[in-house]
Amino acid sequence: MTGRVQGVAFRASAVDEAREIGLTGWVRNLPDGSVELEAQGDDAQVAALLAWCDHGPPAARVTGVVVEDRAPIDDERGFVLRR
To answer: Of 13, 21, 79, 82, which one has the fewest beta carbons inside 10 Å?
Structure first.
């Protein structure tokens, strides 16, 4: 995600949202000021998180979301915040 997505509780909110939806994966800040997120679940679950990512938490101002399909990770458990 790009825009004002760091320093606005985006990662913590994304963790809460993903866990509520039932996804596994992770979210982290990148040095360029963007946020990277990897999520696994069924299509409807992932679509729900992507819809949330379009706006994020109240203080965020999301200007872009790029989606890339990746191979599933078999042993991934939970949804975590990476540093």
So the answer is: 82
29 is catalytic: yes
Q: What is the CATH number of the domain that holds 32?
A: 3.30.70.100
d(CA 37, CA 20): 16
pLDDT digits (tens, 9 = 90+) for 8-56: 999 999 999 999 999 999 999 999 999 999 999 999 999 999 999 999 9
Residue 11: partners with Cβ closer than 8 Å, 6 or more residues away: 27, 28, 29, 35, 81
Q: Which of 11, 19, 28, 83 is catalytic?
A: 11
Residue 80 forms part of a structural domain = no
Q: Active site residue: 4, 19, 28, 29, which one?
A: 29
